[in-house]
């Protein structure tokens, strides 16, 4: 199992980036719930990242919850932006990712982060961020950045814990769908619950195999 490092971020700092904002998304493939985009800003003085930090998909739920506050304390700034199921239905998942990231950047800016002086390190091979922005930011895409780069791994953990918490809370408000276990992903039991109970406002209705 590969542990992330700050090698890429350090190289970006040496190339002139004052700040690096690692970005990763969570919930892209779910059939219910928001899509969440995590953001983690680091500078040259950030120091060693929390021990055990990895891409959220490589951690147990218990370990993610333990690491999240350590990650928030480690980074200069963190934020999570959301786009709702209705928004995913209305504009599509890629545009919804951009909208969620834009909201996260606004929150980070309002918290005092110098977003315009940052370079974005975006997981994947496609820049889905700049099309959502009025003014472009410097974006560097990197495949498997969530695995290799500590700022992006941190963003994934922050986003995953935030989104999971929302889905767990929904279990009490909209029981019967197993949100606490499936987190909005399309398990057989989840589809069976939709067939029995119908879809809710949390569901991405354009993604469902059955209409309700």
Automatic annotation (TrEMBL):
Principal EC category: hydrolase
UniProt cross-references to Gene3D superfamilies, sorted A to Z: Ribonuclease H-like superfamily/Ribonuclease H
PROSITE patterns named in the record: RNASE_H_2
Cellular localisation: Cytoplasm
Hydrolase is among the record's keywords: yes
SUPFAM superfamilies: Ribonuclease H-like (SSF53098)
Family membership noted in the UniProt record: Belongs to the RNase HII family.
UniProtKB keywords: Cytoplasm, Endonuclease, Hydrolase, Manganese, Metal-binding, Nuclease
Record EC number: 3.1.26.4
Function: Endonuclease that specifically degrades the RNA of RNA-DNA hybrids.
Residues of the RNase H type-2 domain: 18-212
Major place of residence: cytoplasm
Cofactor note: Manganese or magnesium. Binds 1 divalent metal ion per monomer in the absence of substrate. May bind a second metal ion after substrate binding.
A GO CC term assigned to this protein in UniProt: cytoplasm
Name of this protein: Ribonuclease
UniProt-listed InterPro entries: RNase_HII, RNase_HII/HIII, RNase_HII/HIII_dom, RNaseH-like_sf, RNaseH_sf
